Structure formats: structure tokens, C-alpha cells
UniProtKB/TrEMBL annotation:
<dbReference type="InterPro" id="IPR037066">
    <property type="entry name" value="Plug_dom_sf"/>
</dbReference>
<keyword id="KW-0812">Transmembrane</keyword>
<keyword id="KW-0732">Signal</keyword>
<dbReference type="InterPro" id="IPR039426">
    <property type="entry name" value="TonB-dep_rcpt-like"/>
</dbReference>
<keyword id="KW-0472">Membrane</keyword>
<keyword id="KW-0410">Iron transport</keyword>
<keyword id="KW-0998">Cell outer membrane</keyword>
<dbReference type="Pfam" id="PF13715">
    <property type="entry name" value="CarbopepD_reg_2"/>
</dbReference>
<dbReference type="InterPro" id="IPR008969">
    <property type="entry name" value="CarboxyPept-like_regulatory"/>
</dbReference>
<feature type="signal peptide">
    <location>
        <begin position="1"/>
        <end position="19"/>
    </location>
</feature>
<keyword id="KW-0798">TonB box</keyword>
<keyword id="KW-0406">Ion transport</keyword>
<keyword id="KW-0408">Iron</keyword>
<dbReference type="InterPro" id="IPR000531">
    <property type="entry name" value="Beta-barrel_TonB"/>
</dbReference>
<dbReference type="Pfam" id="PF07715">
    <property type="entry name" value="Plug"/>
</dbReference>
<feature type="domain" description="TonB-dependent receptor plug">
    <location>
        <begin position="116"/>
        <end position="223"/>
    </location>
</feature>
<dbReference type="InterPro" id="IPR012910">
    <property type="entry name" value="Plug_dom"/>
</dbReference>
Length: 796
């Protein structure tokens, strides 16, 4: 080992010795001479960047001699590019002119953290995630960010995929698309499978951990993900992206754009088609999507219309694989759709959904110091899932038993479809006032309405019944209104940044639920939330700072919490107080951050195993629970061609005084009390690593690793209800070149789980009491062994 280490150092020394010069400078406003903190400075031919500090200064160190192209960009200013020769330490200042045209960054800036905001966040550019965009679910683009765990129902990354951040599932992660809420208004989840290949139309992403800044839509209890789609491209382009690989996975994507026409207009479009058989049995996916966008650029305004949508058909794999099957080696077994006494499976056990989005985005620079951004939006969703049911009671469907040949039929096998048909529409807005580089004020908010129609049909019955085909046995409607207004300010006082943010949110929800007498009637609920936030950042040096913030978040119960309860058992809203303290530094060849968090929950909703007034499983408020931990992330350029990026999260996640109710073979409740246990799906350690080597400017080899420690499947810390830890490694190869008439040809190979680790990234548990003892039935979401995706990118 000592000899190996010595040899490695010897190999690296020539690179280190050659990297001996620096480039530094200051970014200022050309008219006023004021410093511009937070400007992005990029050496384009090395693909490295930094951010100017509070004094507008930047530095790149350890550069070889040669010519470098440096680009500087800053919101509201024209970008500037210089090519400089470096054969000694170099000083290069940039004076930027205010832009005559409004930039589309204003659309999302109101809901984003700025460069020095006192909160934990990660920014991803198109260049960051394009190399990973091979067809897997959108969440996989975020997998290497801190505190993140990603899973796939089908086991191969295509179809239903999901993400947890700091142990929080998608119902507690606020997601916006161009500042417009994406979370489902009723169950509050986010289903990227409904917009397959969305990543091919995305320009940039910001992930905030914890409560973060005020935003539109559902409350952020674990994180918020802010996505911005296609922005202005001045040159015409055509592009094809394709990939193919294991388990019949194939993806085709076509992108076209006109560039800037007549100095004012742009038009962009995308078509995508994806298919995968999936790793789990009967987990195939057929996915299609499109994205159309047209924009008008005036001297002080931008108007953009986005029309996009997707269709998904996925065979159901959402119950995972029984743990016993996994342990016996049958990791692909899927029991959904099994037809009793036949040994066969129903072929159309599928989920089918269409979603269409319409967004009208408008930005206006009212004065050089005052701007407005607003949007009108409409989302139409409709679809169903179909399933085979064995020996269901007709009385459960309101069907009168039929007597045939003297025998009364009270139950039958049947096929049913459960439909959702909904509309979501509203408006978002924000005003920004920036009288100087010391003060930044934002006033924003939104009003949104949701209307959902839930209805269920019987398509077929094995036994004779009195019903007609496509018999509708239930229907109900829901309406939800969501209004919020927030004000945010950042003020620079010397080396100190003071931050304040206040949001008021009102929710009105009408739904079919149970009254005090357990009759099914339309119910109404109104909730009011106040979400204040405050923080401070102190600039230690030109390139490093420390920060601290405290934020309050409130989160409403979801549809099932309301529908499956009566006024006497209705759950309360959840409350979170989030304290964040951190340090970050950014050098030319090194960046790092450490962030400590303490998230104190009141009335967190968890499944206990109890049943409500009408016998449905419910979530119950837990008075006290918390998450506390440390997040680390960093990136270092070890030598000119060698880069290492890594993240690590150490945390403790606890529920206090938890009561679980299980039921025995006679359906009698049995209580189990726990004083202090781990929160479900909350690993104590999550780490990632990406080692990237560029043998030349056009090629990259990356070794990507992910470690997730043991997780519990419920809140009891029971050793028989766990997900084992896992460590999985991938290899990514990329090579780009050009030929006459083609701007770029890129070929890539992604080898997932290169060592064929047998691991499960998610699961569920169903404990019960049998013979006076607790028995457990677990499901695991088994992930595929070594598999690959080869990709081709052609740009004209």
C-alpha cells in the first residue's frame, strides 16, 4: 500500500508542478463602478467556474501556461468573454454593462437562494446533468447531491422512480417548474414519470435542503427542487439523443430550435419516446413526451409560451418483491395481477396517465432597478390504473347479489379501473426591486385552483352479475384553492448579509369524507399558515463565508388523511422549525461546504397501523420528532485532468413516544409503545463520490459511487423491518468529436452497478399479530445487477 501511494504521488507531481499560475480580477458595474458579488466566472476551455465574492473579486489558481477563454455572467447584465494568454500570474478585470434585454433568470429567481444565501443548496447546470441524461428517471440527475436517495420501482431506472432528501419523501419535497407548482394538489407527490425525458428540456436546477426560501405550492419539509426549462438560444440547432441498453431499454429524443429570428423570436421543440422491459417481472414502460416553446424578446420584456406533456403506460411494480423471494434468490418476482387457481397473470395490470401543461411566462424590466415576472398556467391530467381482483365481495361495489341456478353469487373475480380526471390552473407573480448591489427586495406569491374527479369502474366480472360493462360504482369530486404571498429581503452591510423572508399561505379544500355519524358527505377544511425565515451570512475572506438561518414551515395533511377521517379524528397540520448553520468556500480548483441542520417537527404525520372510524389505515400526528445532522460536499481538481467530487451526510432521525397499533387474527387491536425510535426511511449515513479523469479535452472517464446505510421500514426500529445498507458503483464513459457539417458527435456508455451488488433501495412493511406474536411481511424494491446504457448525441 505504501509503494502504491508513493507511485500515485509520483504520477501526480508532474501535473501539480505544471499548474503554477493564477488568474484573478474584479467584476464591476461599468456605469457605477460598484462591485458585483455573485457573478459567475467560467474558464470555458477547462469547464471550471467560480463565483465572485462580496467585493466582486475572483481567483483561479494552479493553471498551466496557455490561452484561456474566460466568460463572466451576472443577472441583469450583458455577459462578457475574454481570451487571455497565461505565462505568469495574471490580473483581468471585467466591467459589465446592464443588459438592454430582460433575462429569463428572473422567472425563477424569486423562489431561489442567491449565491450567498444562508441556506443549504446545490445548483446544477445543463452541462452538469446532460452527461447523465441517458433515459433513466429525472431523479437520477440529482442522485449525487447531498442527503439524496433515489429508487426505481422496476429496478432499472425507467418508469416510476422516486427521491428522498434528508429522509423526506416527495410529498414533503416542494417542486416547481418555472416557478409553477408540480406537486399533486391532493396527495402532494411528484410523478416525473408523467413527463418522461423532461431533463432534455431543462436548462438548470436548484435543490434546496430543509425549508429553504419561500416558494409556491406544497410546503418544503425535506427539500425544494426548482427547475427552469429551455431559455434563449441565439443560434439555430438540431439535435438527436439516443440510448439503448439492458432490459430492452431504448430512448429517442429529437430537439429543434430556430435560434433568434429577426432579433425578437425563438421557437424550440422536442419529441421523446422511451421503452423498457424493466428488471422486475412485468414492469415494462412505454413513455412518450413533447415540449414546444415560443418566445418574444423585446427591449425590456420577454414573453414565452410553453406547451408540453407526456403519456405513460407502466406495468405495475409498485408493491416491490416479497422479502422472502429476494432472500431465496428470486429478486425479480412480481405478484401483482396474479389470478388465483390458474397460475397466470392478468396481462393489462397497468397504470395509464396523460398530462398536458400550458405555461405563459412574462418578464418586464419596468425600470433599471425594478422588474416584474409573472405566469399563467394550466395543467390537464387524466388516466387510470387497471387491476385484477380475486374474489371480491359484490357488496363492496354496491352490486346486488344475483341468484343463478339456485346459487346466490356474493363474490367474484373482477377487473376494475380507478380513474383520476383533474384540472390545475392559476397565476404566479413576483416583483423585484434592487436599488443598489447592497439591497435586494422581492414580493411574490401565487393563487392556484385544483379540481379533481375521482371515479371507479368495473370492466369485467367472472361470475354473472346485474351490472353493465364499464359499470361506475363510485364517484366523488374535490376542489382545492391555494393562495400565498411572500416578501424577501437581502441586505449587505459590509461583510455581513442579512436575510429575511415571510410567507402567508391559505388553503381551502373540499372533499368527500365522513361526518360525525360516519355518513359520506362533502366536507370543507380551511388552513392558514405563517412561514417566517431569517438568516445571516458573514464573509470571512474573499472566497469563504459562514452562515446561519432559522426557518418555519407548515405542511397540510394529504387527501387520504382527510378522506379517511371524520371531524373528530381529523389530523392536524405538521409544523417544522429548521435551523441551518454552515461554512462554504470556493477556490478556482477547490470548493467545499459543511452544513449542520436541526429539524424539529411538531405533529409529524406517520403511519401507525391503526384504523380510523371506518376501518381505513390512517396516519397519526406524532407530537415530537426531529432530524439532526451534518452534510459535507466538496470538489477538488487534483491535477489538470483529474477531479474528485464527494458528499457525505451523517444524521440522527428520531421519533419520540411512538404508539403502534397492530391487529391480531381476530381483528382486535394490540398496542405497542416505543419511547424513542428511528424515523422510517432515514439512513444515518448517505455518501457519494465521483472521480472524473479527462485524458483529453474531448473525453471523460468517471467512477461514480453511492453508499446508503441501513434504513428502517417503519418507526419502531425493529430489526426485522429493515432495508440493508448498500454500496453501488457505476462507470461512465464519454467521448465527443466533430466532423464537417456536424457540430458535435458524442458517444457514451453508462455501466450501472458495475460490481453487481445485490441491493434494495426501498421497501414497505406490513406487521401483524399472529398467535400472540408479531409477524412481519416485508416488500423490497430490488435493483438490477450490472447493466448498461449506450448513448449517441449528434448536434447540427
Amino acid at each position: 500500500m505504501k509503494n502504491l501511494f508513493t507511485a500515485l504521488i509520483a504520477l501526480l507531481l508532474p501535473f501539480v508542478a505544471a499548474a503554477q499560475f493564477s488568474v484573478s480580477g474584479r467584476i464591476t458595474d461599468q456605469q457605477t463602478g460598484e462591485s458585483l458579488p455573485g457573478a459567475t466566472v467560467t474558464i470555458q476551455n477547462l469547464a471550471i467556474s467560480t463565483i465572485s465574492n462580496a467585493g466582486g473579486k475572483y481567483t483561479f489558481k494552479n493553471l498551466k501556461s496557455g490561452n484561456y477563454t474566460i466568460a463572466v455572467s451576472y443577472l441583469g447584465y450583458k455577459s462578457e468573454v475574454k481570451t487571455i494568454a497565461v505565462d505568469a500570474n495574471n490580473t483581468s478585470d471585467f466591467s459589465l454593462n446592464r443588459s438592454a434585454n430582460v433575462t429569463e433568470e428572473v422567472t425563477v429567481s424569486a423562489t431561489r437562494a442567491s449565491a450567498n444565501s444562508p441556506t443549504a443548496f446545490t445548483n446544477l447546470t445543463k452541462k452538469d446533468f446532460d452527461k447523465n441524461n441517458t433515459g433513466r428517471g429525472f431523479e437520477y440527475l440529482l442522485e449525487q447531491t447531498p442527503s439524496t436517495v433515489v429508487t426505481s420501482n422496476a429496478g432499472a431506472g425507467v418508469g416510476y422512480t422516486s427521491i428522498r432528501v434528508r429522509g423526506s419523501d416527495p410529498t414533503r419535497i416542494n417542486v416547481t417548474l418555472n416557478g409553477i407548482p408540480m406537486n399533486d394538489a391532493e396527495d402532494q407527490g411528484v410523478y416525473f414519470v408523467d413527463l418522461p425525458d423532461l431533463a432534455s428540456s431543462v436548462d438548470n436546477i436548484q435543490i434546496q435542503r430543509g425549508v429553504g426560501t419561500s416558494t409556491n405550492g406544497a410546503g418544503a419539509f425535506g427539500a425544494s427542487i426548482n427547475i427552469q426549462t429551455t431559455t434563449r438560444r441565439d443560434s439555430a440547432y438540431a439535435e438527436y439523443n439516443g440510448s439503448a441498453g439492458s432490459y430492452g431499454t431504448v430512448k429517442h429524443t429529437f430537439n429543434l430550435g430556430t435560434g433568434l429570428l429577426g432579433g425578437h423570436f425563438t421557437f424550440d421543440g422536442r419529441l421523446s419516446n422511451m421503452y423498457s422491459d424493466g428488471y422486475i417481472e412485468r414492469s415494462a414502460s412505454k413513455l412518450n413526451s413533447y415540449f414546444l416553446s415560443g418566445a418574444y424578446y423585446g427591449k425590456t420584456s420577454v414573453l414565452r409560451l410553453n406547451v408540453f406533456g407526456g403519456y405513460e403506460q407502466t406495468h405495475q411494480a409498485w408493491d416491490g418483491v416479497p422479502q422472502d423471494s429476494v432472500l431465496k434468490g428470486d429478486r425479480r418476482y412480481n405478484e401483482l395481477g396474479y389470478i388465483n387457481a390458474t397460475g397466470k397473470y392478468y396481462p393489462n395490470q397497468t397504470d395509464n396517465y396523460n398530462q398536458k401543461y400550458y405555461q405563459l411566462l412574462y418578464n418586464q424590466q419596468i425600470t433599471p432597478l425594478f422588474s416584474f415576472s409573472g405566469a399563467l398556467h394550466y395543467t390537464r391530467g387524466y388516466g387510470y390504473y387497471e387491476e385484477y381482483r380475486n374474489d371480491d365481495q359484490l357488496s363492496d361495489y354496491g352490486v346486488t347479489p344475483v341468484t343463478v341456478g339456485g346459487t346466490t353469487i356474493t363474490s367474484t373475480d373482477l377487473v376494475r379501473r380507478l380513474w383520476l380526471d383533474n384540472d390545475f390552473y392559476g397565476a404566479t407573480y413576483n416583483f423585484n426591486y434592487k436599488p443598489s448591489n447592497k439591497l435586494d427586495l422581492t414580493l411574490g406569491g401565487a393563487y392556484n385552483e385544483y379540481k379533481g374527479r375521482h371515479y371507479n369502474n368495473i370492466e369485467w366480472t367472472q361470475q354473472s352479475t346485474s351490472i353493465q360493462p364499464d359499470y361506475e360504482y363510485s364517484r366523488n369530486t374535490a376542489k382545492k384553492t391555494d393562495f400565498n404571498v411572500f416578501a424577501r429581503a437581502e441586505y449587505h452591510l459590509g461583510d455581513v448579509l442579512l436575510y429575511g423572508d415571510m410567507q402567508i399561505r391559505h388553503i381551502g379544500y373540499s372533499f368527500l369524507g365522513f361526518d360525525q355519524n360516519l355518513n359520506n358527505v362533502q366536507q370543507q377544511v380551511g388552513l392558514n399558515f405563517y412561514n417566517p425565515k431569517a438568516g445571516v451570512t458573514y464573509q470571512l475572506t474573499d472566497n469563504s463565508n459562514v452562515y446561519a438561518s432559522i426557518a418555519v414551515g407548515n405542511h397540510e395533511p394529504n387527501r387520504s388523511d382527510f378522506v379517511n377521517s371524520s371531524p373528530s379524528s381529523r389530523p392536524r397540520a405538521e409544523n417544522l422549525k429548521d435551523l441551518e448553520v454552515g461554512y462554504r468556500t470556493r477556490q478556482s480548483n477547490f470548493s467545499a461546504g459543511i452544513n449542520g441542520f436541526y429539524m424539529l417537527y411538531k405533529n409529524q404525520l406517520v403511519l401507525t397501523g391503526a384504523l380510523d372510524d371506518v376501518g381505513e389505515a390512517i396516519r397519526t400526528n406524532i407530537k415530537d420528532s426531529y432530524r439532526a445532522g451534518i452534510e459535507l460536499d466538496g470538489k477538488v481538481r487534483i491535477a489538470q485532468p483529474l477531479t474528485w467530487a464527494a458528499t457525505a451526510t451523517l444524521s440522527t432521525n428520531k421519533v419520540k413516544n411512538f404508539n403502534q397499533v397492530l391487529f391480531d387474527e381476530n381483528n382486535k387491536p394490540v398496542n405497542f409503545n416505543y419511547s424513542k425510535t428511528d424515523i422510517a426511511y432515514s439512513p444515518n449515513f448517505v455518501g457519494s463520490s465521483t472521480i472524473s479523469y479527462q485524458p483529453c479535452n474531448h473525453a471523460e472517464i468517471a467512477f461514480i459511487s453511492k453508499y446508503v446505510s441501513q434504513q428502517y421500514l417503519d418507526n419502531t426500529s425493529s430489526t426485522d423491518r429493515t432495508l440493508p445498507h448498500y454500496f453501488v458503483n457505476d462507470v461512465r464513459l464519454n467521448y465527443n468529436f466533430s466532423i464537417k457539417g456536424v457540430k458535435n458527435i458524442g458517444i457514451g456508455l453508462l455501466v450501472n452497478n458495475v460490481f453487481s451488488a445485490k441491493y434494495q433501495s426501498d421497501g414497505a412493511t406490513y406487521p401483524y399479530v399472529d398467535g400472540g406474536k408479531v409477524a412481519t411481511y416485508n416488500y423490497w424494491f430490488a435493483q438490477a445487477p450490472i447493466n448498461f446504457l449506450a448513448s449517441l448525441n449528434v448536434k447540427f
